[in-house]
Amino acid sequence: MNGVTNIKESQSKARLVIFEIAHMISVPMSLTTVIKLKVPDAIWQNGLNIPLSASQILTRLRPHGGGDAENLQRILRLLVCYDIFTEHLSSCGERKYSLAYVGKTLVADEEGLSYAAYILHHHQDALMRAWPLVGKTVEDPTIEPFKKANGEGAISYYTKRPETLDLTHKALAGISVPLMRDILDSYNGFHGIETLVDVGGSSGVTLQLIMQKYPNVRKGINFDLPDMVACAPNIPGVIHVGGDALESVPCGDAIFMKWVLLAWTDDECLKAMQNCYKALPVGGKLIACDPVLPELTNESQRTKALLGGDIFIMTMYRTKGKHRTEQQFKELGISAGFPHFRAVYVDPYMPILEFQK
């Protein structure tokens, strides 16, 4: 009898898992909805984070009336499960909501940065059109689903549309600045560097943070595709240079890359790293900040985030671009000519990878 009971319990658990996965799209779509509606900002007014009912939230969002409080509450309840909101249930059954730990990252800080743009960026219409084609990466790995769906690659698509490029810059800044602050609190590998090249530096905000922390870095070269740096802001000590790392890289005492190698194939990574090697003096180093996959697959949140990001890259940017293991990075470095390699895990998702010449 116990055996039969155990089988039924296992089947019930399996059904719950399938139901959760089948309805998983409800989570990012609900999160995108509350960001577009500016629900986190409505709750966070003046930093008070006072619990509000769905009706009270709508009153702040739409002071002249309108909106369906019941449907908003249904969305909020789902997002409570993912630590976006905290639910406060009164004795009379009224539900109120405040921002939970993750939800607070969706509210702009004193510099106007948040993770909200990163969520919106990942769920633009152009990207959503690509997801039904993810299976095409198995059938034909030569063309990315994004390109199949939109007629051109993602980078080309972004740079031709000012509003999309602006969202890209905001998304990268919103996620990069907190990450870089954490890295700079723990990693001291920028000492002794006078000229630092940031390959794929976008707006140059990363160089700005490094140079503020390390005044010994007197010259920063923000190197990215010409369209990406065309509208980059003026930053003291930083020059913006357009180009392609697969062709050449500006010379410097050290070269920094963040979220760049993942968008290239192994052959492209090798070519770019060889160009970095040529651009560095003896003793110079390439400092890469890239997602690193674990060797063993498990059910941890870190592994799920990394593998989910891997499929995102495969679908949106390059079918053979990918997240790599530490060993794979080491082998690429050796092939590019770097005799010394070490990984510094200052961040569980994106550690520092040092390749020294």
Task: Please sum up the structure shown.
This protein is of the alpha/beta class.
Describe the overall structure.
By secondary structure, this protein is an alpha/beta fold. The protein has two domains: 1-105, Winged helix-like DNA-binding domain superfamily/Winged helix DNA-binding domain (Arc Repressor Mutant, subunit A, Orthogonal Bundle), CATH 1.10.10; 179-356, Rossmann fold. It is 46% helix and 14% strand. It has helices spanning 2-22, 26-37, 39-43, 54-61, 69-80, 116-122, 125-130, 136-139, 145-150, 154-159, 162-186, 205-213, 226-229, 266-279, 301-316, 326-336, and strands spanning 85-89, 95-99, 195-199, 219-224, 238-242, 254-258, 285-289, 292-293, 324-325, 340-344, 352-356. The termini are far apart. Keywords: Methyltransferase, S-adenosyl-L-methionine, Transferase. One of its GO terms (molecular function) is S-adenosylmethionine-dependent methyltransferase activity. This is O-methyltransferase domain-containing protein. Residues 20-108 form the O-methyltransferase dimerisation domain. InterPro entries: COMT-like (IPR016461), COMT_C (IPR001077), COMT_dimerisation (IPR012967), SAM-dependent_MTases_sf (IPR029063), WH-like_DNA-bd_sf (IPR036388), WH_DNA-bd_sf (IPR036390).
